[in-house]
Amino acid sequence: MNDLPEYYFRVRDNGALVFRVDADNRQRRIDMDQIATVNIRNGEVKPQGDRSLTPKDIAEIQSWVAWRTNQLAEREVDDIIRAVDHMNLTSQWVQTRASDAQLDQVTDALLMAMHDLKSVLIRKKADRMVRETGRED
């Protein structure tokens, strides 16, 4: 049981509950003692109850927050890449298999979503180009 980590992070929306893991007790069972709650969005770390966090606790939590933030950012990009794949599959479905009734169900919603996305992408690209050149034309 010595392979267990000292800390366990139970992921939840916007963060995690932080537990200190103890497997070195007389009963030889794993005890998990909640020591804090972490909010990734605002960086807030709340000790559990009237507990004080040690410098090691804080360092481990900060390390996990950095790792988790990076992991979520990577997943977000991966989700968008998957969305592009799904858009391509949707185009193929529309061209080869969709019935008129199915197209009637989805066409307006798809066109509005695609128009919205296109508008946002064009605006963001123009903003980047202005920042890169340092001027507006």
Automatic annotation (TrEMBL):
It comes from the Bacteria. Keywords: Plasmid. This is Uncharacterized protein. It comes from Pseudorhodobacter turbinis.
